[in-house]
Amino acid sequence: MPKNQNTFSSLTALTTLRRRLANRAVHAAWRWMQQAGAITAQTPGRLRFGAIGHGTRLAFPQGTVFGEPWIRLGDHCIIGEQVTITAGMMPGLDLGTEPVLVLGNGVVLGRDTHVIADTRITIGDDTFCGPGVYITSTNHSYDDPHEPVGKQWPRSAPVEIGPGCWLGTGAVILPGARLGRNVVVAAGAVVRGEVPDHAVVAGAPARIVRRWQPDTGWQPPLRTPAPVPIPDGVTPEQLRAVALLTEAEERAAQTR
């Protein structure tokens, strides 16, 4: 009986070891594919964008990408995993000489974001999109009550997103939208029409809920104090040391 137990234990240990090795191999292979499959100016793969700037990177795996000759990506853009960026209604169209989708420098498109440019979409410098943002220049029409909506010819209108904007998770930007500078779009908001500079919009349809003016500041006033900026000359090592000290003080306070 002890011999059988030892044999069973050995088989269990061997199975566990194999699973651990397989797990490590799978994760190592996936990390390698993420690195090798990323799209940059130096490693464009099959994609031939109208322009792709220095330091710009499309993470692997990419989402649907077509019409790339009419897509221009600025410098230092970050395109997350499974992000769809398209120009034109379908692949293989001749869209003329002008770009259809233009991303400025430093644009970030979060994971699962979709940018569908059937007519021109412009996203300004340093605009950040959370996960699952949807930006489109085309929408379904439903003029004919007897025809299925999906079979009716869609309507298109250019979209312009100014520099420095923040689009929260799940935000939707509809055709014809024009966002000014440093606009905040709340998570899940549905935006159409024009939004002025330095505004916060929320809801579906989105409405202005806060705005900054040079003479009055933010109205309604902000409910939380502004973050304290990091002083000049502070190193990352010093910041980590402060964070560790704060954690130790909090743990000590909890044990008292």
Automatic annotation (TrEMBL):
It comes from the Bacteria. Pfam families: Hexapep. GO terms for molecular function: O-acyltransferase activity. GO terms for cellular component: cytosol. SUPFAM superfamilies: Trimeric LpxA-like enzymes. The keyword Kinase does not apply. The keyword Ligase does not apply. Keywords: Acyltransferase, Repeat, Transferase. PANTHER family: ACETYLTRANSFERASE C18B11.09C-RELATED (PTHR23416:SF23), SIALIC ACID SYNTHASE-RELATED (PTHR23416). Belongs to the transferase hexapeptide repeat family. This is Acyltransferase.
